[in-house]
Structures are given as structure tokens and as C-alpha cells.
Design goal:
The complex is a heterodimer of chains A (116) and B (113). In chain A, 36% of the residues are buried. Helix content of chain A is 0%, strand content 53%. In chain A, the strands form two sheets. In chain A, strands 2, 4, 5, 6, 9, 10 and 11 form a seven-stranded mixed beta sheet that branches. Chain A has a four-stranded antiparallel beta sheet with strand order 1-3-8-7, with no helix packed on it. Chain B is mainly beta and 113 residues long. The chains are: A mainly beta (116), B mainly beta (113). The interface between A and B is medium-sized, with 25 and 24 residues.
Chain lengths: 116, 113
Amino acid sequence: DAGVIQSPRHEVTEMGQEVTLRCKPISGHDYLFWYRQTMMRGLELLIYFNNNVPIDDSGMPEDRFSAKMPNASFSTLKIQPSEPRDSAVYFCASSRGGTGANNEQFFGPGTRLTVL
Amino acid sequence: GDSVTQMEGPVTLSEEAFLTINCTYTATGYPSLFWYVQYPGEGLQLLLKATKADDKGSNKGFEATYRKETTSFHLEKGSVQVSDSAVYFCALRSGQAGTALIFGKGTTLSVSS
């Protein structure tokens, strides 16, 4: 398996522009997570999906952020309009469901977003 | 709410030195505990895990023991290598299946030869 795939790996944009980050989870995984990593706040959960349905979006910072999962193999995280404080590395992760800790989360390589 | 606290870095060691990175947690119920490692420019990789009290997770010479009485999960390695230089994250997941991880802030380890 290719692992979790994220695109683009790097994105530089200007304040006010729309940014779309993409994620392809590992085939067969029914949970998908979006995290944001910054120096100040570390790794934070933004939102997660189960079977394509958003379960917890309490970490989404504000209405400028939105996430969708139209099917089991694709998810997007959109920021509109973007602001300099959105600059961070955004990680997507996926896992199988089920009880116990054997449902390991596998992380993608991340998208480094810079908003000028 | 649940939280993870780990020692701040950076930690700078010479090759073959002993490593300890402290991690304590606050959680209701019986969480599962994890250590993840992030090499430069890469995503996080699971290093080891423990699912119940007194479990010891181990991998690649690293070890951590789930201590319920002290709510700790300290990471140790007897002899570090230059290739161990990375950022290490302690994390927990609550007892519910499939819920997200809660991470500590991360500890940067730098090993010199």
C-alpha cells in the first residue's frame, strides 16, 4: 500500500486566497483525521471522519475552515480566505475502526502551508 | 479534558548515551498510550504503544512502560544513535475506539557523533 497520500506537499499563497489540501487515506481504513502542527500549539486535531461522516469538528478553528469527505478514498481541507496565522503543517491520518489500540493511525507526509 | 505533558527539549546527547524523555498524562478511564517519532520533513510514525497498566511497549531499542500509579509513559533507550535524531511525541487515546489522538508538544532529540 502506498500509505496516506497528501497533496500538495508545499503550498505558498497570499492572504485572502482559497487553499485546498487533499488527502487519500489507506484503502480499507474507515477513519480519517486532519491535524495541524505549529510551533506554538504543537499537534492539534482539527476534524475526523468515520465512514465519510464528520464525527468531531470541534477543533476546526473558525468558519474559514471546512472539510469534506465525498467518498472513502478522498478528503479535502479548505481554508477560505486564508490568513498568515494559518501557516502550519497539515497532516492527514487514517486508521481502521474497532476497539482497542490496534487501530493504529497512519500519517501522511503533511502539507506545509505558508500564507504571505 | 485529557492531556499529555512531555519534557521540553531540545535534548542533546552524544552517541551511545542513555535517553529518557518524560511523559505524563491526564485522562479519564483507561487510555491507550503511544510514542510517535517524526523525522525531518516526514510525517509521524508510530514508535511503540501500550494499552493497559504495566504494559511495556518496545521497538528499535526504545521502551516505555505504562505506569497508571504515576500516570506516566516515559520513553527510554539505552544507547542512542545519530539516526535517532528526530522529534518524539507522546500521545494518548481515550478508551473509545477510533477517537483521535491527543499529543504532547513534542521533544526534539539531537544526537551527535
